[in-house]
Design goal:
The structure holds 2 protein chains of 2 kinds. Helices cover 73% and strands 0% of the residues of chain A. Chain A has helices at 2-15, 17-24, 32-50, 54-57, 65-70, 79-105, 110-116, 120-145, 162-192, 197-203. In chain B, strand 1 and strand 2 (15-22) form a beta hairpin. The chains are: A mainly alpha, B alpha+beta.
Chain lengths: 204, 309
């Protein structure tokens, strides 16, 4: 499975950086800080955890490979990697599907809008828990390999403990998730809260 | 001298107060009147605007120094109120922003046993010369900033929202600890001593240049004047925000003099923010001094950092 998703995953998630650029230059209305937080966490999880530590995090997540097999779950990857792919893929398909329909038809069909402003309620927690599990699995590997880290002494006096940085990033999820979730809830109320009557009237 | 009764409303249209004032009174006096009615909203916290006109997103903001008659306000006119939140003096924010780094950085230099536990640190007299120069320079820089806050700078606005205090202090205190940690580390590797001495000597030149720029800026306006002026003299003849130029070069020289990447990141972060401010100021001055209707034309100048900006 890893081979199948490898390249498309890397390209599509990295392309998400453009979202931050578009928001920063005002091409889209989204707030830069929120967009940056979202994209940053995905880029970190993909390029900072999954790719460098693939050998450690793909076979096992919360459950080891053996435990997973014993429970009769699919064996091509650990369940958390599968949920991670599911959460990311579903989010992107729904979001971009919504944008595409909006561009093509002016007003997207109500179902697309509803999905875009409702699916996050499940996908956000699913994605966040998957990202954190992958990171948690990777931590011992990062520490043992001194991944991306540099130690003193060196001529430019730079030390970087990537293990510590990962722990700090994971900690930022604590205030981060409520912020992102809260933002989507407010957006949901704004867009869907107007009542089902409006969009139906527009579509007619 | 006409007595008028103004209808002060919230954004949602609810009348908060009916204020009886003279049309020749200033907006500032109007705000004092409202403060008397509602003790929570001291004048610095009040934003008053005219209702938005056709096509406007929001109405014109009423300036404290302007007379009410200048805005065409008469009896029954509506003025909209917005609460700006708890406000804090600019000078108070600056003081706390700069006092933190002044104290935090030397802690790393003087107390390695606390900040680098378990690592053998050299006794103070055996420390590399550059570490000693760096701590002295850093402390001088922030002491200078505090001095300027109280004796040099004249502020365009008197207050800012209080959440800026926490945001700004996090930035300054965080970077102070970040830079101090690496420069004062027991495993610090000093660059060539001559290079360091040259860099810090030049950095001090930058400090004095920056100070001179600040005095020029503060002398631009006489007390009470609020109009924008074109800065001139010294480096201002060539660069709009020459004070930022000197500041950035000072930190670049600190970085090279200490050979510390963390200092480089601090320099970059500061430069990035200053660039944003400089661009805004440069644009504002160009727009104001367009050369039409007898106004001066803003001369061709660098924004902040020749040859890049």
């Amino acid at each position: 499975m890893q081979q199948a998703v490898d390249i498309p995953l890397k390209i599509s998630q990295s392309a998400a950086l453009l979202e931050v650029v578009h928001s920063a230059i005002g091409l889209v209305k989204s707030p830069v800080a929120i967009t940056a937080m979202q994209v940053a966490s995905r880029i970190w999880c993909l390029w900072g955890i999954v790719v460098p530590c693939a050998a450690t995090v793909i076979p096992q997540g919360l459950l080891t490979a053996g435990q997973q097999a014993a429970l009769g779950l699919p064996g091509w990857a650990n369940i958390n990697f599968i949920t991670l792919m599911t959460a990311w893929a579903c989010s992107e398909v729904i979001r971009y599907g919504f944008f595409a329909l909006k561009e093509a038809f002016g007003t997207p069909p109500y179902f697309a809008t509803w999905l875009r402003y409702t699916a996050f309620m499940v996908l956000y927690p699913l994605g966040v828990s998957s990202e954190l599990t992958m990171a948690w699995r990777a931590l011992p590997d990062i520490k043992a390999r001194g991944l991306f880290s540099s130690t003193l002494p060196n001529s430019w006096n730079w030390g970087f403990d990537y293990h510590l940085v990962c722990v700090l990033v994971m900690a930022t999820y604590i205030p981060g998730l409520p912020q992102l979730y809260g933002y989507m809830l407010t957006q949901r109320k704004k867009v869907l809260g107007g009542g089902a009557a409006k969009p139906k009237a527009k579509a007619a | 001298m006409t007595l008028i009764s103004l209808d002060l409303q919230s954004r949602s249209g609810k009348t908060l107060a009916k204020l009886d004032v003279d049309s020749e009174d200033t907006v500032g006096q109007l705000k004092k009147k409202f403060h008397a009615v509602n003790k929570k909203y001291y004048p610095a916290r009040q934003r008053m605007t005219l209702p938005a006109k056709e096509g406007q997103k929001s109405g014109e903001v009423l300036k404290d120094s302007a007379k009410l008659s200048e805005y065409g306000l008469s009896s029954g006119s509506v003025v909209l109120f917005k609460d700006l939140g708890t406000q804090i003096d600019y000078s108070t924010v600056f003081f706390f922003e700069y006092f933190g780094p002044l104290v935090i950085y030397p802690l790393f230099f003087f107390l390695p046993q606390i900040f680098y536990p378990g690592q053998k640190a050299l006794p103070l007299d055996q420390r590399p010369l550059v570490q000693k120069i760096a701590v002295a320079y850093w402390m001088f820089h922030y002491a200078k900033r505090i001095f300027e806050t109280y004796f040099v700078h004249t502020f365009g606005h008197a207050t800012m929202p209080i959440k800026n205090l926490f945001k700004n202090c996090s930035y300054y205190y965080g970077f102070a600890a970040f830079v101090a940690y690496f420069v004062n580390h027991p495993a610090y590797t000093a660059p060539d001593e001559t290079l360091s001495l040259v860099c810090f000597a030049l950095a001090m030149v930058c400090q004095f240049s920056n100070f001179r720029c600040h005095t020029i800026l503060s002398n631009l306006r006489a007390p009470g004047e609020t109009a924008y002026k074109i800065p001139s003299g010294f480096l201002f003849n060539y660069i709009t925000c020459a004070n930022y130029t000197a500041e950035i070069w000072g930190w670049i020289l600190f970085t090279i003099g200490t050979h510390t990447i963390a200092a480089g990141l601090f320099t970059a972060a500061g430069a990035f923010q200053m660039a944003e401010w400089a661009r805004g100021k440069h644009k504002r001055l160009q727009k104001l001094f367009d050369g039409k209707d007898g106004r001066q034309k803003y001369p061709k100048r660098w924004v902040m950092f020749p040859p890049l900006l």
